[in-house]
Amino acid sequence: MSAGAGNEGEFRASAPLSLGVELELQLVKPHDLDLARGAGDLLARLGRRKLPGAVKPEITESMIELNSSVHTSCESLLEELNVLRKAVVEDAGVLNLSVAGGGAHPFHDWADRRIFPNERFVAVVQRYGYLAKQFTVFGQHIHVGCPSGDDAVYLVHMLTRYVPHFIALSAASPFYQGEDTSYQSSRLTAVSAFPLAGHMPFVADWAEFMEYYGKMKSFGIVASMKDFYWDIRPKPEYGTVEIRVCDTPLTVRRAALLAAYAQALAAYYLAERPREPVRSIYLVNAFNRFEAARFGFGGSLIDPYSGEKRHVGDDILAEIARVEPHAARAGSGELLAELAGVVRGGVSDADWLRARHRERGALADVVRDACDKWRTHN
Amino acid sequence: MDLAFLPTLPPAVSQLMLFGVLLLCGLAAGEALRRYASLPRITGYVLAGVLLGPQATGLLDSDALFEARLIVDLAIGLVVFELGSRLDFGWLKRNQWLFAAALAEALFCFVGIHVALVYFGFAPLFAATAAAIGTASSPAVVLLVQQELRSEGQLTERMILCSAVNTVFAYVVLALLLPFLYIEEKVDLGTAVLHPMYVFLGAAALGFLASRFLLLAARWFGKNEDRQFVLLVALVVATIGLAHSLKLSVVVALVTFGMLSRNFDSAHVLLPVRFGHGGQIFFVILFLLSGASLEFHAFEVAAAAVVAAYVLVRFLGKAAGLVIFSRLSGITARQAGLLAVSLVPMSGLAVVMVRDTVTLYPTFGRELAAVVLSSVVVLELVGPIATQFALRRAGEASPEA
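^ inputs. structure came back:
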């Protein structure tokens, strides 16, 4: 996913419906299962390998980020994620580190985290203080390619209705600071704390978005697109729309399933253009988002077009059925069916973590199980 | 009026008062050194011990040192158990070059010191014994400096692992040398072989039994950090006591206990135990008493050149072993050099080991004992500073500590 050298007003068109995934992973000490400070050493070691995509640091030294390259098919995406996964697990093992997915570490003390020593992260700490260390949460970002800026704006609006889906499907952070939060995803609270969190304003097209962005820049509120901590965000340098709301799942397979869903939704909207964006998408967003983070599949979702209230799980199944033809065309029909199976089973990654806790008794064991799951599942 | 109810003056110095005063002096010295000289607290405790000990003011005389032996044993016991539990078999299996590096560090150090001492004219057998004693890096110092600096990272993990490996190495080599030392003393062959075997293997067996018991008991008590801490202390104390009465090696028993408990806990019944506030008391006392036990008069007997060689070759041997295997085991040569520096501390246990050796084998010689004891003096003072330096330089110490 190479960044374009063009000016920022330009949306660098990329192959429509191409996919890219970023996964933030936890680095854990096997001896007490707390977060470790291993990013620098691990990256140095991984640097000696020839790997597809990239592995990058994140804000604190207990996190690393896997970056896939650009894919059109989910199968090849999954294959590549597995190559990266195995390389990271192997090199981490040599350094006595374990790796896990999941949206947050169940019992780490955020104050113990150390900031990764690069310019950008140091600047973030200086600006946001303790929020930076509290931002030791682990998410999945999905990039979907768009043919133009206007399409990107359209997609951002249309996909916002699906934010609760992505939250419920990926939720994997039920524990925080040693306690059961009773949420499916407690990670989103850390994201929401930032002043520039939220969603894109209700702009009509790329030109209007650029006007807004220009104004924000001239006010000095943002310096680049990266400063917007929105759930869904256009990324002009890549020519994509970026969904940033998912917790990192416990396996790469689930990450690929989520990417498949995103791709199918984008295909549906860009190809069929079934409706135009309406303001009520954003009126119901906060409520829907909360319900999904708190209750997952069983939470309530308000349809912004019809005003109907239904369960998140039922809504997901209905929408999966709607976009299934597009998934089939992209070759990910089976993956989408598998995702539907997960929803029907009603057990999210957060539920899995809770079940492990009930069985094992200690959160350290939950982390250990999460590490084992990451290490062994393709 | 009958004033018999009043105490006699001056009041007799009770054990409790002594204990309290020691704790206070040690704590103050540690804090002063940290605040005004940016040195590790351990150095403060040691210096306080030196000042209070028989060498200086004599407030802590050898009787008091003897009485406090129980606390020292407990403190060492907890440290050595913790050390054993950080000898991670899984890591050594995943990174076999690391195992090679740790062994090389111990081996090169041992061989280096041995060769140096033989060069200075000491008998090979005794040189080997003195070399074995010097191979161990003080577990108490490395664990405590790490804790104080809240240090985390590759160097920290490897430092603790290497300290565990070189301590075990030292004890194994000593066990192997004992028969020969015995023979030097003209003891019969049977005793010469059986005694060391008993001391070493018996201790390992005791450690093994204790680990099985701990795992069973921890399963019953459940996953509660407070309860498991008390359980641990109870078993460590009992094991020390049993090792003493059965005349087995306390250190070997406890390292084995720690090692097997952690590595064979397949059901993960044990919680990681943090010594926290309670533990600090023992460590202040431990280092204070180590400081008081330092034998400065050894410098009168030992030649400065020999002591310097001992200390230097010890470091160079460790550095060589670690640097040679640095790339293969996954660190840079610079990190390996700093790792060697972090392993400079020498255990106060060495004093005990020397005393025991001299008692059993008087031919060991005053001079060799003096060399080792002088080195301990130097390294007890310099060691913690070296470890602190290495961890800071490596960027692993917490920025706030």
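The two ends of chain B are 60 Å apart (CA to CA). The interface with chain A takes residues 86, 88, 90-91, 94-95, 98, 150, 152-154, 157, 222-223, 262, 268, 271-272, 330-331, 396, 398-399 of chain B (CB under 8 Å).
thumbs up if we can close this ticket
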